[in-house]
Amino acid sequence: MLAPLLRELIAAEAPVLAAHGLTMWGYVVLSTLDRGAMRTQAALAEAINADKTRIIPTLDELQQRGYIERFPDPEDRRVRLLAITESGRAVKDAAQAEIQRGEERWLGELSLDERRMFLKALRRMAPDGIERRA
Fold this sequence. Notes:
By secondary structure, the chain is mainly alpha-helical.
């Protein structure tokens, strides 16, 4: 039951992200970095459950657009710290707001009690680190 719903939600998000010049991975990276800087690209990849070599092009693109910064760790110059920029936060927030409006249309199909129970169940089942919105 969840797979078709998930496919529809992803399909609904794709044009929103495209309108903001983001890919799904780009949005995931920005959302994760908005919760705090990452010490390494490997740590970011682990946090978003992605292969560290496959996110490099996404990080390159986000950095080129000025949405993230990668800079040497002062304690270990071999390590690259990653952080979201104000520009990255602005584009992420704009895309997120539009996505949330779409989610509200879906949740609007439920009664208030159904909605509370549904969101409570999702929060309980969500892995740690997943953004939890009401």
